[in-house]
Specification:
single chain, about 525 residues, DNA polymerase, domain 1, Rossmann fold, 4 domains
Length: about 525
């Protein structure tokens, strides 16, 4: 476990230096395979799935040395009395995969192997990548380009200079706007640029030095973020009333995690812990990575907690980094930050949904609603029987008073019911007499209606017979039987010559049959 942890730390640091995702250096699967195989030579390492020639040339020597340091053995294992030169020979031997030196009075001599310039520089870069360091100096030049920022540092003691570069995404994450004259600390590894053989420091992070510069950067960033509304009160979310699922980010080394867990108590919380650095610019990368990890599982957590103890403005500068502040403000999970002491107000804490002064206060904030609920339960357990007895007495008294009032009202109701019964009997007799009268009237009305109906029916019969005679007299077919005919043009009966022309076709309807004729002459 110690070796896999060491390999991961190296891999994460190397990724920051190169400005790439960690899996592009080596994936977790490859690291686990290395720990399982514990290779001792180039051939054994190339047998590990995921390690090819290019990967070995870039990282092989460093990995073999790390495995050797943890007792795994190594093809680079030094004999007693070996020198730095023999280490370099071992490096080049691993690079070509075969013995390349023979001992002589003049020292080490290369045999049958000649490296190209590119191979030699590749080998040097592999060696140099293991020389990562933190370097302090004054900025003497800055050249910000689209993908890379080039700058130069000098030593204030002897004017030594060092050319440096940092990729823009890492520059942005560092949260520093470089200016000539700034005193800075950079972390990175030396690297030779093959096209011109120039040595430069490839930085993975930059941080300012001195309280004055840090305070100036703090004030400027705070003003900028306030103008954007990052700290706006209306953006802050309430923490869940009874949180149980906690995502915790802090260092596993400091006192903060001990203070937090001790004060959190046995509340039945489920805490998922993601260990990170909490000081220095390296902490920015690791904490943002932790935020990304938890946000991919945001539905599993009620609150995300970020804690660390107090310190100087310099030691807390990771929590005043713009990238980290924005990560806190944009987090999908409600955030609770307990960073520093009461006098320490970091920008990340201002951007959180809720901030408290210390890791201890953070734990107490989470457990407070549970403590209050338990206190209320104990209070109720103690006082509920007394309250129940008092309430029962009150209800009993109210029921006794209500019973007397109800009896009185019931007697009044019965008396009123008797009065209603008497009035109903009287009204019922009146209704019977009225019903008899109405029944007689209805009988007479029925007779009248029957007589009226019979009379009306006779009248209708007479009218129907009269109508039938009229229809018979005016029936057009009757005249046709007598020899008359109907002349039609286009379905209309022709009554006069107006509108007719010679050559028009006419239909003549007879008593039996029809004739189609053509007009040859018109006589008005």
């Amino acid at each position: 476990m110690a070796l896999i942890s060491e390999l991961r730390n190296w891999r994460n640091k190397q990724a920051r230096i190169e400005g790439v995702e960690v899996y592009r250096v080596l994936s977790n699967t490859v690291l686990e395979a290395l720990v399982g195989a514990l290779p001792q030579s180039k051939d054994e390492m190339l047998a590990v799935k995921g390690i090819k020639e290019a990967k070995f040339q870039k990282y092989g020597v460093i990995l073999l040395r790390m495995i050797e340091a943890y007792g795994g053995g190594s093809g680079l294992k030094k004999e007693q009395g070996s020198s730095k030169k023999s280490d370099n020979d071992a490096f080049f031997q691993s690079l070509v995969g075969e013995p390349i030196r023979a001992e002589s009075q003049e020292g080490v001599v290369l045999e049958d192997t000649t490296l190209s310039v590119s191979e030699f520089l590749d080998g040097l870069n592999v060696e140099l990548s293991g020389m990562a360091a933190r370097i302090q100096g004054e900025v003497t030049s800055v050249d910000v380009r689209e993908r890379v920022v080039y700058f130069t540092m000098k030593d204030s003691q002897d004017e030594s200079t060092l050319a440096c570069l940092i990729f823009r995404n890492q520059y942005t994450l560092s949260g520093v706007e470089l200016a000539i004259g700034d005193e800075i600390i950079v972390e990175g590894a030396p690297d030779i640029y093959k096209p011109n053989g120039r040595l430069s420091l490839r930085a993975g992070m930059i941080e300012l030095c001195g309280e004055g510069a840090l305070q100036k950067a703090y004030d400027a960033l705070k003003k900028k973020l306030e103008a954007e509304g990052v700290f706006a009160t209306e953006k802050k979310r309430l923490l869940p009333e009874f949180p149980t699922r906690i995502a915790l980010i802090t260092s596993e080394q400091g006192a903060a995690i001990g203070d937090f867990t001790m004060n959190l108590g046995a509340q039945g919380f489920h805490v998922d812990f993601y260990p990170t650095s909490v000081e220095g610019k390296r902490a920015v990368f690791e904490i943002i990575e932790a935020f990304c990890y938890f946000e991919r599982r945001s539905e599993d957590y009620d609150v995300l907690v970020l804690i660390r103890g107090g310190g100087s403005l310099e030691s807390l500068q990771a929590f005043n980094n713009e990238a980290l502040v924005r990560a806190v403000a944009e987090c999908q999970i409600p955030t609770l930050l307990g960073v520093g002491h009461e006098k320490d107000v970091t920008l990340a804490a201002l951007a959180s949904d809720m901030m408290v002064s210390t890791p201890t206060a953070t734990a107490r904030t989470l457990r407070a609603p549970w403590d209050e609920a338990r206190g209320l339960l104990r209070h109720l357990e103690e006082h509920l029987p007394l309250l129940l007895e008092r309430e029962l007495r009150r209800v009993k008294g109210e029921l006794g008073s209500g019973s007397d009032a109800l009896s009185l009202k019931l007697r009044e109701f019965l008396a009123y019911a008797d009065t209603l019964r008497e009035e109903l009997a009287k009204n019922f007799l009146s209704l019977q007499s009225l019903a008899r009268e109405k029944r007689v009237a209805l009988g007479e009305a029925k007779k009248h209606m029957e007589q009226l109906f019979v009379s009306r029916l006779e009248s209708v019969k007479k009218e129907l017979l009269y109508g039938e005679d009229l229809l018979r007299q005016y029936d057009p077919t009757r005249v046709l039987k007598l020899g008359y005919s109907l002349v039609k043009s286009g379905g209309q009966v022709v009554k006069k010559t107006a509108g007719l022309s010679v050559g028009d076709m006419l239909d003549i309807e007879l008593h039996k049959g029809k004739i189609g004729v053509k007009v040859e002459k018109i006589i008005d």
